[in-house]
């Protein structure tokens, strides 16, 4: 499994480097400081969500409500600041708590009621989106305190603040997955849920915990996006669920669970971000971005299946001569 993980990450990193080299050759603007900061800032949000989503995919689950959790948490924080004149940082903490609670709700539906995670989170996505529209009445909340704008717009040594948040999240999640017993349990659950229960692993608790972590990270991404825009909008994070899943698949994480790494998910998110940036730099109609993302998703999902089919055919071809020889001996 370790060799498979390394191969997937190496392949994804190679594709990313190839994309960046190609973009540099054909566009003199790609390596400019302004453009690189733009790429890093965009990557920060999809990267955070992808790293979070990777935790669920490792146990064979997913969360399609991450975008709406981000939106609702950001809107809630914005309302606390603009309407109730709450301390901006306290409002952000309440938003993070709200996102965590929403994640726990998703986890309870999946783990305790044994609902399919995709179906359950599609339903919760509609619920969270509806609550957001009720709170905002479809309008943007613009009276966001300037004191928190640095979290979304600021830079430290030329590196955007959201990107630094993303790196911290990646480090924490990698430590959780690679250096703790919980991380080993995550892979065990992804490989066989029933076997994990027999081993005494608290499967339901870990599943709920991971949904809570995803809710927290989604809320953080939504709140940072509010700080970046200076307003809380109901459209925040609409593309994050599918892009995060695509990033994970591109990074070598199997949808069935048990194989992959959060680092691969981040590299996959970087590929998506670079492709989106290249579309803009090359003057391609931005409406093609969705089509390109769709092609990337389908290609990433189809590639492992194609490899499996090709390997299977090779084994059959290698096995046929032996079977023919055995058949010939039997006839003689």
Offer a few descriptive terms.
transmembrane helix; ABC transporter involved in vitamin B12 uptake, BtuC; 13 helices; 332 residues; transmembrane
Describe the structure.
This protein is mainly α and 332 residues long. It has one domain (2-284): ABC transporter involved in vitamin B12 uptake, BtuC (Orthogonal Bundle), CATH 1.10.3470.10. The protein has helices at residues 2-26, 33-58, 66-82, 88-111, 117-136, 149-153, 161-179, 181-191, 193-198, 203-229, 240-250, 262-281, 288-331; strands spanning 155-156, 159-160. The longest helix has 44 residues, at 288-331. The protein is globular. The model has no long low-confidence stretch (mean pLDDT 89). InterPro entries: ABC_transp_permease. It is found in: Cell membrane. It comes from Faecalicatena faecalis. Pfam families: BPD_transp_2 (PF02653).
